[in-house]
């Protein structure tokens, strides 16, 4: 049995297209910042995805980026209409975007140099700026009530590190 491929609109007519467009904004902002990635996708899960592709290199790009829903919180509805077929539901979507890349690991058992670590840190700071720009400038989010929640570094694990951003959008 084959499962039909769902479009963002099929999955959720409001949130699906918004997530798809925001993902494109994340990928575009990272590229515009001179920090393109090889893999940029929507992911599902209760926690951020594993850094499976942080070491990939492709056509000038490096690493992976993602967008995911963290949770959906109910929102109060002030105008209920008895004429509606279904009860209206309003939600606040918590969204996370992130990027993972390789970090210097040193060679021959030696730790990375201070210069290598510094260069890597500047790169992640640039990624953080690109993720903020994706949230602030994405046309798919214009006119929506957006609340910036946090932006955090990702701890180094297995030679990978990164940065994530979380925000809410009322739907």
Uncertain stretches: none
Biggest sheet descriptor: 5 strands, mixed
Computed structural class: alpha+beta
Sum up the overall morphology in one term.
elongated
Beta-strand share of residues: 25-35%
User: Total strand count, please?
Assistant: 7
The strand line-up of the biggest sheet is 1-4-5-7-6
Distance between the termini: 34 Å
What is the mean pLDDT? 91
SSE layout:
Blueprint (H helix, E strand, L loop, with lengths): L7 H4 L3 H18 L6 E4 L14 E2 L2 E2 L1 E12 L14 E13 L11 H24 L8 E12 L2 E11 L1
Parallel strand pairs: 1-4
Antiparallel strand pairs: 2-3, 4-5, 5-7, 6-7
Helix pairs in contact: 2-3
Give an overview in words:
- With 171 residues, this protein is an alpha+beta fold.
- The protein has 3 helices and 7 strands; from the N terminus they run ααβββββαββ.
- It has helices at 8-11, 15-32, 114-137; strands at residues 39-42, 57-58, 61-62, 64-75, 90-102, 146-157, 160-170.
- Strand 6 and strand 7 (160-170) form a beta hairpin.
- Helix 2 (15-32) packs across helix 3.
- The longest helix has 24 residues, at 114-137.
- The chain is elongated, with a radius of gyration of 19 Å.
- It starts with 7 loop residues before the first helix and ends with a strand.
Gist?
The protein is built from 3 helices and 7 strands. The protein has helices spanning 8-11, 15-32, 114-137; strands at 39-42, 57-58, 61-62, 64-75, 90-102, 146-157, 160-170.
């Amino acid at each position: 049995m084959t499962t039909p491929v769902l479009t963002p609109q099929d999955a959720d007519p409001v949130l699906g297209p918004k997530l798809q467009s925001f993902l494109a904004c994340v990928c575009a902002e990272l590229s515009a910042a001179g920090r393109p990635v090889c893999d940029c996708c929507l992911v599902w899960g209760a926690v951020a995805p594993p850094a499976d592709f942080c070491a990939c290199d492709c056509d000038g790009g490096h690493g992976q980026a993602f967008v995911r829903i963290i949770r959906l919180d109910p929102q109060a509805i002030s105008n209920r209409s008895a004429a509606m077929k279904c009860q209206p539901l309003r939600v606040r979507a918590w969204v996370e975007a992130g990027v993972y890349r390789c970090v210097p690991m040193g060679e021959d058992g030696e730790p990375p140099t201070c210069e290598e670590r510094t260069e890597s840190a500047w790169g992640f700071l640039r990624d953080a700026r690109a993720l903020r720009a994706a949230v602030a400038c994405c046309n798919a989010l214009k006119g929506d009530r957006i609340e910036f929640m946090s932006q955090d570094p990702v701890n180094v694990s297995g030679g990978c590190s990164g940065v994530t951003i979380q925000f809410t959008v009322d739907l």
